[in-house]
Amino acid sequence: MDAAEYKNYILAFMFYRYLSEFQEHYLVENNVLDISEGESVNKVYLKEANGEDLKEYLEDISSSLGYAIAPLDTWESLINKIDNSMVIPSDYQTIFDNFNKNTELNKEASQDFRGVFNDINLGDSRLGSSTNERAKSLNRIVKLVDDIDYKGEDGKDILGVIYEYLIGQFAASAGKKGGEFYTPHEVSKILAKVVTDDIEESDRTFSVYDPTCGSGSLLLTVGNELPGGTHPGAIKYYGQEKNTTTYNLARMNLMMHGVSFNNMALSNADTLESDWPDGLDVKGVDHPRSFDAVVANPPYSAHWDNSETKLRDPRFSDYGKLAPKTKADYAFVLHSLYHLNEEGTMAIVLPHGVLFRGAAEGVIRKNLIEHKSGNRIYAVIGLPANLFYGVSIPTTILVFKKKRTTKDILFIDASNEFEKGKNQNRLSNENINKIVETYRNRVNVDKYAHLASIDEIRENEYNLNIPRYVDTFEEEEPIDLQEVKSLLAKDNQEIAELEAKIAEQLKILGV
Fold this sequence. Notes:
Ferritin; Rossmann fold; 3 domains; globular; EC 2.1.1.72
């Protein structure tokens, strides 16, 4: 198997171990079990939660955690079976079937856990030619995951860090496909810092939405950058992801970073075809959900169904045209902007073509700038090439705000400031901080940033190509023609001397 396939086994079993051990922690912390000194939690759970009492235990656990794992299915029970050679081929299917069944005990949380392990193909012949061989392969994976120390030297849980690291490594191995589920952390940090730049810590729950959320890493980075964002309930994460495998990855990733099912709402859907679930009601009236921040790294220049009927869709109806069938970039922009609240900030990564392409895209761009409520485009940030997995082209971050007092646009050209890597370029902390500080200060920086007035934008016919606004041209030092002439004469003299020596040697050799 290649990395894109075996990651499903490694990451899923890591998640199952996490859920099982988190459940143990719940049983101890809430005194659900009467544990004597020296007894293991799992042993007491096996003893007390059986027969008619089992259902009551599972319902209690599910009501708090959103899921429940029966005593015979816990991670420790599975490890004990493996160590004592008691695992039979059907055990793994039974464990996941039982987990899926127990997710239905809590209707509010069922969507967050239902089918989360469906990407583990227990019957894949590459695990082994027989059911026994496949079971042995799965046993080895489980033991491998069991060997991981989930605690750092300071005793803190580092599982989320390990999981995120592995996702990044799998993305790197997957090449172009890696870009479908993972945004490089340095780029995520820029987007996260931009959308939380003017946010102060408060008791109000902050909401962030990613319409193409991949593995959820971008959402989590926003949580890390939000003041007080690591406090329980400080932030609620919303996301949509079309690929079911990647959607499952996102659910696991958020939960293993300590996000409760109460604080996340992820949907497995095509964002452009299915608006956020709070869209049209039974009468066809739209009730859009809006968020404090929107971040996105959508697939670049994707194909989509731009049927004329979508011009009646409230997401697109204000802008006169639909994004071209073969370039859905502005469809993602307008969808995301539609769900941004009046006070919030949106940041989206796109190819440079969105800045200058004409036809329908030119109309949409002009209408974003000349919108009846004011210019929606707040900043354009040019990034270096080759930052993303499988995509070597340079990209740009477009920043949007609805509530503005000015109509200008800040242009930042950060395309030449990066650390060169073997396969990919990287942004250092210094590179990131310079971008964010320039964005925050919103003033001209020689050869790096320019604050363009609305009149400049109009003069350029709404073309936002960064070189039109940021002059990065470096003048070459003047050439001293006399010195060049002197050097050429010297070279000619040396050549003549060498040719004379060669002729003399050839004469000696009789040639």
